[in-house]
Amino acid sequence: MSAAVSLIEEFNSFFTDNILCFLLLFTGIFLTFKTRFVQVRFFLQGLKNTFGGIIKKEKTDGISPFAALATSLAAQLGTGNIVGAGSAIILGGPGAVFWMWFSAFFGMATAYSEAVLAQKTRKVTDSKDFTGGAAYYIKYAFSGKKGQYLAGVFSLFATVALGFTGVSVQSNSISSALNEALNIPAFISGIILTLAAGVLILKGTKAIARLSEKTVPCLAFLYTAACLTVIIMNIKYIPKAFYLIFSCAFSPEALFGGITGISIKTALTQGIKRGLFTNEAGMGSTPSAHALSDAKNPHYQGTLGMAGVFIDTFLLLTLTALAIISVLYTKSTPPDPTLSGSEAVTLAFSSVFGQKGAALFIAFSIMFFAFASILGWNLFGSSSAVFLFGKKSEKLYTVSSLIFVFLGCIFPGQLVWALTDLFNTLMVLTNIPALIKLSKEIQTEANFDKNC
């Protein structure tokens, strides 16, 4: 088992260090210039549309634009903001946060593009609902057998990455956190999680979207309040935390006299890789949610897509990062490099809430965020399975996905993370060419203010 995991990790390392990171950056920069910095021009509009959706509920028989965004955020605001952020900082140093921001800025243009194309290529089902996602615009981008083949390959990767390995990562994080905080055996966590997820997933897409619409803002608010408490209690260290984020992005060897052994390349790749896991821009997963929306036009949903990346990375992930850095990196000795992401966050929160209180809060935060991600990723993976095998495959897929929810609880964390990184990478490699190919259509939407 360990040999197989090491092989997968070496493969992941080669692709993320040498291909994935630079491909994501290139695509984000290309789409940013193609859309004339859509993330800057329509930034306020995106926030208005997003927070307006929280305050004023849209009346619709289908899924509202904000409910579609909340479903997308339910998948994004999982372990990436807690475990992923902590891991990136421990492995890549504070400088990894800068590269998360850097990639997320350009990733906002990528997320806008994915949401726009999801709206433009979606289909109406027999039950008069919408369906769509990256596979649909990949097929549209490349006509004939080539498009069908590439869309099928993407759907295969997405089915595994989201519904199988993806939900395994989330359930693994939940079971690990509950075991650390409450000594709950992984087997018990697996049974409870699988049953709870099964009940909600079987209620259908609209039920998941409406549940996300109600719960995601509350979860984000509570987690934000806790992070701000830690930051305020360590406010004198925040200037140094920002200094470390920017200085260590370009000279990480200056951190603790270079004894951490972190290089610029490590900071960059950890920042971009974990940034992808949390905001998913370029991965092709969130278009499945954006395609469901009753948005007035593709541009409107596109502004929500890019706002989702901003909320995820520049707000929530930054709060987690500041809490970790202000507590663990402003002292005279470096943190233990063997710390896991959740352990790093727990140590940061324990400076205010105490060890037991922090462990409980982080455990329940991971549980609720990751459980929301399980529902969102199952939904995204399901749309890929239906694209591949038809509507009849949906029940079989759901059962298979629930089995992986259980397996994720009892499998080694190193294995499920390695497999998730692998299939996330494969999704990116098949999604990006379609975004580049359809950039003119994206440009058309971004060049007109449709009074959203």
Radius of gyration: 20 Å
The backbone outline, from C-alpha atoms, is globular
Total number of distinct structural domains:
1
Largest sheet: 2 strands, antiparallel
What is the mean pLDDT? 83
Strand content: under 5%
Based on helices, strands and strand pairing, what is the structural class?
mainly alpha
For the record, what is the CATH homologous superfamily label?
Answer: Amino acid/polyamine transporter I
Order of helices and strands: HHHHHHEEHHHHHHHHHHHH
Residue share in helices? over 70%
**Second rung of CATH, namely the architecture:** Up-down Bundle
Task: Please count the beta strands (DSSP E, at least 2 residues each).
Answer: 2
Classified by CATH, the class is Mainly Alpha
- Determine the CATH topology: Amino acid/polyamine transporter I
Number of helices: 18
Poorly predicted runs:
none
User: What's the arrangement of strands in the largest beta sheet?
Assistant: 1-2
Question: Explain this structure to me?
Answer:
This protein is mainly α and 452 residues long. It has one domain (2-443): Amino acid/polyamine transporter I, CATH 1.20.1740. The mean pLDDT is 83. Strands 1-2 form a two-stranded antiparallel ribbon. The chain has 18 helices and 2 strands. The longest helix has 49 residues, at 341-389. Helix 3 crosses helix 4 and helix 5 (79-92) packs antiparallel against helix 12. Strand 1 and strand 2 (130-131) form a beta hairpin. It is globular and about 60 Å long.
